[in-house]
Inverse folding.
């Protein structure tokens, strides 16, 4: 399992290396468009620059948007959501924060929530050309490749054209259109785009040319083919939404290195690659009370995006029972850095087979490295294995997990 975890992490890094964040829509004015270009400087450098501005002017709208985009490019969706949430407080009539939070939801693997944000951004004046790269990925994660490809094509004339072209190629490959996918990448290949070369390897893998894909990977990243070959060979057998999550977010449906432990077209969490957070980022990415407004939907969104983080809670009294802290056998369904998102994830899992989950409660197990969504505890490994097989029979993957004495396990909703 350790080898599989390491390989999964390597695949996630390879995938993330294939894409710059398509981030959010461009500012309306030409002058504002120059405020952030992901290709003019490194995302880390841009984030540091915006943080310096925010230290003097915490409500500087351009810097909040720029910091959000830079954080997203660095893979820190939680910080990005905080920046976009603060920007929304400063200028609630701008489509930029809503589009940014849509991009955050996509990075968190929650395409339906992302579509809500993108719809709100459109209502505020965002053109499809500037939303398409990210909204297209939301559609891809839902298995709706035709809609995804239409958005990507619309974005080819926007500021994220290169990223839209890469994602279009992958989406076409997912649809089985190898020739069109390679044709889409041709302009990037012609100018030696390194990310395009890595995307070409994924196109080959998605369309069944595993040997060609491994050779392409080795040319793009020498020495890496052997570590990712197990995943490349399995890509063609995945469902379309699973393929999109694997090649865009670096997540396979049943690899323990991914944030999700089950396969669902609408339930993918961010890749597990850890990002070094710039000093001071938390000071400016946390939403100021009250939390930023929600877009105009009815009902609670399925995942709480980072910008709507709850206020600071006082230390909880020692209410966790000794039994919960002792070592017991559980089944893990999902995991991630955001414990608040697990309630929505559990609802989506239960909706796939309500009879099987009748009377089953979800728990949050907090470890130093992550929060886990678990069910149980079971009397022993055999009982857990029986229920695991029941879950697998309806397409829900889970794996056995035994808590340590230091893990805090509480019922969902009380974390």
């Amino acid at each position: 399992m350790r080898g599989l975890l390491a390989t999964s992490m390597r695949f996630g890094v390879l995938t993330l290396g294939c894409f710059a964040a398509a981030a959010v829509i461009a500012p309306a004015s030409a002058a504002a468009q120059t405020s952030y270009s992901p290709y003019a400087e490194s995302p880390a450098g841009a984030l540091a620059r915006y943080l310096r501005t925010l230290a003097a002017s915490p409500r500087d709208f351009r810097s909040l948007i720029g910091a959000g985009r830079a954080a997203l490019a660095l893979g820190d969706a939680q910080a990005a959501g905080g920046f976009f949430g603060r920007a929304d407080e400063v200028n609630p009539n701008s489509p930029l924060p809503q589009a940014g939070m849509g991009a955050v939801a996509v990075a968190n693997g929650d395409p339906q929530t992302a579509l809500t944000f993108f719809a709100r951004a459109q209502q505020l004046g965002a053109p499809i050309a500037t939303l398409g790269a990210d909204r297209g990925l939301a559609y891809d994660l839902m298995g709706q490749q035709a809609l995804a490809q239409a958005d990507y094509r619309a974005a080819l004339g926007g500021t994220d054209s290169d990223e839209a072209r890469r994602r279009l190629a992958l989406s076409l490959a997912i649809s089985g259109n190898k020739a069109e996918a390679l044709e889409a990448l041709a302009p990037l290949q012609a100018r030696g785009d390194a990310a395009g070369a890595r995307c070409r390897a994924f196109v080959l893998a998605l369309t069944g040319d595993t040997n060609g894909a491994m050779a392409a990977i080795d040319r793009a990243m020498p020495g890496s083919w052997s570590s990712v070959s197990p995943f490349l060979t399995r890509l063609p057998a995945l469902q379309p939404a699973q393929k999109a999550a694997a090649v865009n977010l670096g997540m396979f449906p049943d690899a323990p290195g991914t944030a999700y432990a089950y396969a669902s077209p609408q339930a993918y969490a961010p890749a597990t690659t850890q990002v070094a957070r710039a000093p001071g980022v938390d000071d400016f990415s946390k939403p100021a009370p009250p939390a930023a407004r929600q877009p105009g939907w009815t009902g609670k969104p399925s995942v709480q995006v980072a910008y709507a983080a709850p206020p600071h809670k006082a230390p909880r009294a020692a209410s966790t029972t000794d039994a919960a802290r002792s070592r017991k056998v559980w089944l893990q369904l999902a995991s991630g850095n955001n414990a608040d998102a697990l309630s929505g994830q559990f609802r989506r899992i239960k909706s796939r087979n309500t009879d099987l989950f009748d009377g089953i409660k979800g728990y949050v197990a907090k470890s130093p490295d992550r929060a886990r969504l678990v069910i149980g505890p079971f009397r022993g490994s055999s009982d857990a294995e029986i229920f695991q097989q029941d879950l697998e029979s309806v397409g829900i993957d889970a794996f056995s997990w035994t808590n340590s004495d230091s893990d805090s396990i509480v019922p969902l909703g009380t974390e």
Observations:
- The longest helix spans residues 2-18.
